[in-house]
Design goal:
The protein is mainly alpha-helical. The protein is built from four helices and three strands, in the order βααββαα.
């Protein structure tokens, strides 16, 4: 019924993450929207048990995607922007 998901460990380098409620409030998106994006691998937060933990880079990525959606961008363009953000983070 449910797919087993691979959870990414919470960062142990002392970097503090944000929980879903914090990200929802900061970025102006609903908790359900964050869950939907996680299920579809648009943004994949780390897991701490059943809690989603978002690192700063993921919060920025969510903010950009949310703003693009508010401006009328379609989901595919938002996903392309998300991919671009990930590539930029990886190359930095």
């Amino acid at each position: 019924m449910f797919k087993a998901r691979r959870s990414r460990p919470v960062a142990s380098s002392g970097e503090q993450g944000y929980n879903s409620s914090d990200v929802s409030r900061i970025c102006g998106v609903s908790l359900r929207q964050l869950q939907w994006w996680d299920e579809r691998k648009v943004v994949s937060p780390r897991q701490d048990g059943h809690k989603r933990i978002y690192m700063t880079e993921e919060v920025v990525e969510i903010s950009v995607i949310a703003e693009l959606r508010r401006k009328g961008s379609r989901c595919k363009k938002s996903a392309a922007c998300s991919d671009f953000c990930r590539r930029m983070r990886a190359s930095a």
